[in-house]
Amino acid sequence: MKNPFLKKQNVFVYLSVLFLALTQLSCNNDDNNNNGDDDDDDVPVGTLPPVETKPANSTYVAAFKGQTRIAGIKTETAYTSKVFAEGLASPWGMDNLPDGRIIVTQKAGTMRIVTQAGTVGGTITGIPAVNSNGQGGLLDVAVDPDFATNRMIYWSFSFNGTAGTATAVAKGKLSADETKIENAVVIYKAIPEFNSTLHYGSRLAWDKQGNLFVSTGERSDIASRPLAQKLDAALGKIVRITKNGEPAAGNPFIGQTGVLPEIYSYGHRNPQGLAVHPVTGELWEAEHGPLGGDEINRIAIGKNYGWPTITYGLEYSGAKIGDGITTKSGMEQPVYYWDPVVSPSGITFYSGNLIPEWKNNLFAAALSGQHVVRLVLKDNVVVAEERLLTAANSRFRDVLEGKDGALYAVTDGANAKIYKIAK
To answer: 106-117 pLDDT, tens per residue?
Structure first.
């Protein structure tokens, strides 16, 4: 005679095994559907005092915990930092060539190539004239993802127009002997032209489809500021264009009357940093504030980032900007802001393996701050901040992860240097 208890016990065991299997499947699905920060559970959180010790310019209160003056952190991995190259003349942007060399722009209107040994090559000519007055000149550079087959280079610069200057983008072919740019052509100009030599923005970044993100400033004038909120002007924007300068497919305002189809986001002041997250593919941006209010933003398509309606900064006189508000419905909050400013310029995400604890950290070159910022992110929130290369006592203009996994930072001004951080 069969034991009914054993039969019920077998059913119980079967159901238990099935439950465990389904639970494991659910966990696996959760792992596959995360936000791209695969190691978020292992992200170190700052335990040191905040790196900023100076008083803020304003009494504004952050919108959420960790939006400013987050706890400090110190890199535990032993690393070295040294001068890698020197003798550059007011460099502005850097990018990797496929073979590991670095191409660098110089503000007056030339480019140079730095070898893997740190030797600075001769000037590359053939670039259309730039207006190098004020904050203008030859600005960022972006190597075509297909450079190995087409040798194309893209760059941004201050364009001399009939009604003023404008942020513009051009492209051309690097000659076989690497002495000149051939067949240079302007593919995009941010309208309207404006009589100013300030706030060009002008950082470049490729999306994963081979389109080009371009940041533009609002030209630093009371008259031009409101254009950052206007969708019929390309000032104070991030635009996304094809390699030929056309609006990229999927842009949020294509087909809308009276709206520029190249606009990707708006409400920016002077965005000098752009970087695409190596895991999520999301665009991140660094933006100069006025007196206080430098920002790090995670850029969502079609969104309004508030300038000049909302800001955590003040006029240079100390007066409030506009209504003196920091939040408004329909406008995005920065992921992080600084007050006082550090003047963030070029930014990059670290994806190398030389210093594992830096994986997916965001780095920014700080001009007035005279250091390189390291921001540790967890679930798209800053959880720690560190300052690197402080002993250099230099304004840093751009930062780049090299093909070798090292971090390179270039200083600003005459006889500039590139520093290399590696193990």
So the answer is: 999 999 999 999
Dist CA 93 CA 168 (whole Å): 15
State both tokens at 48: 């040191």
- Classify residue 171 by its DSSP letter: E
Please report which helix (H) or strand (E) contains residue 12, including its range: helix 4-32
End-to-end CA distance of the chain: 73
User: Partners of 14 in the beta sheet?
Assistant: none
Single out the residue of 171, 195, 157 nearest to residue 246, CA to CA: 171
Q: Which residues pair with 83 in a beta bridge?
A: 419
Integer CA distances (angstroms), 61 to 58, 219, 258, 312, 344, in order: 9, 28, 37, 9, 21
For residues 118 and 86, what is the distance between their CA atoms, to the nearest angstrom?
8
The label of the residue with tokens 């995360």 reads 34
Q: What are 188's two structure tokens?
A: 């995009």
Q: Which one, of 287, 170, 118, lies nearest residue 217 by Cα? A: 287
Q: In this predicted model, what pLDDT tens digit does every residue of 259-280 receive, in sequence order?
A: 999 999 999 999 999 999 999 9
Query: Closest Cα to residue 104, out of 131, 133, 84?
Result: 84
- Could you give the CA distance from residue 208 to residue 407 in angstroms, rounded to a whole number? 22
- Token pair, residue 6, equals 């054993």
Residue type, 397: R
| Interatomic CA distance for residues 340 and 334, integer angstroms | 15
Tokens, residue 250: 């999927």
Contact 243, 207 (CB under 8 A): no
The whole-number pLDDT of residue 99 equals 98
Whole-number Å distance between alpha carbons of 226 and 228? 5
Yes or no: say if 58 and 403 are a contact pair by the CB < 8 Å rule. Answer: no
Task: Give residue for tokens 């950052």.
Answer: 228
**pLDDT score recorded for residue 16:** 41
Please tell me the distance from the alpha carbon of residue 348 to that of residue 278, in angstroms, as a whole number.
Answer: 10
Catalytic residue numbers? 199
